[in-house]
Amino acid sequence: MKKFYALFLFVGALFVACSEDDTPVDTPDPDPIVYTSGTANFSNYVAVGNSLTAGFSDNALFIDGQEASLPNMLASNFALAGGGSFEIPFMADNLGGLTLGGNPISENRFFLAFLPDGPSPTPVEGQGTTEVSTKLAGPFNNMGVPGAKSYELLAPGYGSVAGVAMGTANPYFARFSSSESATVVGDAVAQNPTFFSLWAGANDILLYATNGGDGVDQTGNLNPATYSRNDITDPNVFAGSLDGILQAMTANGAEGVIANLPNVTDIPYFNTVPHNPVPLDAATAALLNGAYEAYNQGLLLAQSFMLIDADEVSKRTISFSAGDTNAVVLLDEDLTDLTGVDPGLINMRQATAEDLMVLTSRNFIGTLANPADPTSINGVAIPLADQWVLTPEEQEAVETALNAYNQTIETLAGAYDLALVDANALLNELKTTGFPQTDGSTVTATFATGGGFSLDGVHPAPRGYAILANAFVAAINAKFGSNLPGVNPLDYTGLYIQ
What we know:
3-stranded mixed β-sheet; about 10% strand; SGNH_hydro_sf; signal; hydrolase activity, acting on ester bonds
């Protein structure tokens, strides 16, 4: 009996021990992370730039896009380390269209419509209610102005309502400029910022590129007053403008961050429409080849007179075949001009894989130049004009200017002791490999479905802006010793719905 009693004591002790071991132990919560600004002062942050700063997306500026702008994401991080309020010159609605005197002057934002011939970016229906002449009371921390070139940020009267009517001023800045003679940079500096971001210069080459090189490379021309809208800005003009902006922004001791410019050939606008999208049956191909026979023979005759060489004859010879991958026919101003010899020998050739078709050409190729003539097919019987294609020579002009601009940005970042963001490398990575996310998805530059770019094929989607914001935060942390957390791209949409 004593043995059983001893056994009961042992088992009882075992139960007590197990009971004690199973008792949950309260662990203290980890100390909250304390975010600091390092040597920076985020108390009054002002952002200067163009559409990429304003939050432009889906071919328009609208409230949701402005709330998901890159600077607003940065401001949310700065608020964790002493940052103040961030005022935005909001549009009147989520449609995005502008009016002047009640008359529409810009389209609404795009949404992805599923049309009979496939998904297509389509303006949202309705009339935008953002009236340019209705002035907003500032000041505003987001000084991003869609469409602004580098030198225009310093231009007096760029926010004049009267100037908008004459085509000499910017309708977005006109809504919130402090006066009819104000400059973007002047209004930014008047706020006495303690910290600023500057991302400017994209439009100095982008407008040339997105219009298929239908402009002039103004390298060597130091007078921007003589430029047309789609021209490439002279690199010295760009450098002087950027230096002037930075002198003004840092005059009172503000610190800041600057980003270089991406290569336009990395965006979906130039990587969505193939150079060879024309389907033909055998009979139609034979008919077209017959129609172009005189042109092809004329090229051989020009070669016999040594006006062009065999390589150019090969480049210009037009030939179609049965199948779905016929190359479009286009005009190329860099070909030898033979029209003085034969007016029929226009500067015409078929596209190659080296040509970049602009996104908007997808809705133009295959349409009729003359509705009464079913054979007047654009891109087939009627060559595409310059605006629809960025040729290799035009790409080279863009790249040359881009390299000069980015060298200037790097030099000035060092001179003014700014954090530098390599946006060029980031957008190339978005195109080539994408950015994996914690949910297993990957944000890419694929048009409409990749999540990185909006439906205009040029501007990031909110998720793409978030990836950029994290690059800005990383550069700021590295430069100023702050420990800002960045943002989660998955908190932002990859595609707005209607």
